[in-house]
Amino acid sequence: RQMCIRDRANLSVKGTDKENLLEQIKSQNANLNNIIKEKEEIISQQSFTIDDLKNKLEDWQGKANELSRQNAENKNKLKLYRGKMESLELKLVRAKQDVGEAMNVANDFEVKNIALRVQLERLERKQLENELIKAKKK
């Protein structure tokens, strides 16, 4: 029991120590109040910034939606162009076939033309031979 009383006596604060403690507490309270005010200012600035960010986000979402719409349009155009390209490729294949057929016909005509020239030369040669034979008979 004596020890507890002694411990209490040691723990009891003298008048000047109490004043110092009160000063420290007041100073710490003032510091805390300043910190609270700073934090409140930061929070109020952040809430203003948050509103700005919300507006920017809405703008960006609008732009993203517009780009998405344009992307969908471009995909549709691409499908149309691919369809037209496939159609043109099929027409090109058909045109190549037509050219091939025309070349075959032209080659056939050329062969026939050469054969006719050969026949013509033979006939001309025969005609000359006949004329020579007639001339010798005269």
| Net shape | rod-shaped
Class inferred from helices and paired strands:
mainly alpha
Q: Which stretches are poorly predicted, pLDDT < 50 over at least 5 residues? A: 1-9
Q: What's the number of helices? A: 2
| Major beta sheet summary | none
Tally of DSSP β-strands: 0
Determine the mean pLDDT: 85
Helix content: over 70%
What this model shows, in words?
The N and C termini lie far apart (179 Å). The N terminus is likely disordered. It is rod-shaped, with a radius of gyration of 55 Å. It has 138 residues and is mostly helical.
In short:
The protein is mainly alpha-helical. Helix content is 96%, strand content 0%.
Structural topology:
Layout: H1 2-11, H2 15-137
Which descriptors would you attach to this protein?
138 residues; 96% helix; disordered N terminus
